[in-house]
Amino acid sequence: MKAVFVSIFPELIESFFSVGVINKASKESILDYDTVNPIKFLKKNERLDDSPYGGGPGMLIRTEPLDKAIKEAKKLTSENTKVINLSPQGKKLTQKKAKELSFEKDLIFVCGRYEGIDQRLIDSVIDEEISIGDYVVTGGELPALIVFETIARNIKGVLGDSNSISEESFSDELLEYPQYTRPEKNNLGDVPKVLLSGNHKKIKTWRKKQSLGRTFLQRRDIFPKILNSNDFELLEEFFSDLGYESDRIADLLESIDKK
Ligand code: 4GM
Questions:
Q1: What is the tens place of the pLDDT at every residue in 51-66?
Q2: Rounded to the nearest whole angstrom, what is the distance from the C-alpha of residue 88 to the centroid of ligand 1?
């Protein structure tokens, strides 16, 4: 996949591509990137930004240099390459979306600055608006790199076998379980005994219990509304391990249906 970033700070993009698995995948030609700086399309004494019609705070990038930069990006990519704008107004990035986009041949990322870009440009040349979350940063570069990295991790060959995407059966609906590495004991505490037992069935059950408990505590928004009785009991056990009284556990789990 080739990604072209339309950005007035190409250094940010270049530094990202110069390290780690992304750098390795670029050297192996699994990934490729380029940048187009809209500044390049300004005539002498022209400014990149301008104030919004109707008044109000902030500045917008002028349409002309940005439109030209996107056209240039199109020349650097294959036909029908999707143009993505990073914006707090976009659809929220999900793992599912990233997986979908990983099948695209190339992608163009428009990295806005200031308060964003002229709506006419969004309506005519932007194919998709993506947001990395409900917050605002100064420019679209970091959001674009986050979206790109999430996509890249789904492309075959980008991650080595050892960090390859988890294939655990519950990894896409629940949070990950806690992990430990050597030593067994140190000043911070002990590794849970079950993980040292060598009993794979017990380990799997313990991990599932931790995943259920963590997701319930941290992410009620993604927690399943219905559990099979086995998982329900694991969740009860998670809270009884934490020392909760059974009445309190019943109250806590009241909203969850058991099937
Ligand atoms: C406003 C409009 C994306 C601000 C367009 C970009 C946050 C995100 C910017 C823009 C951004 C996000 C630049 N901040 N939540 N800032 O994905 O490009």
A1: 999 999 999 999 999 9
A2: 5
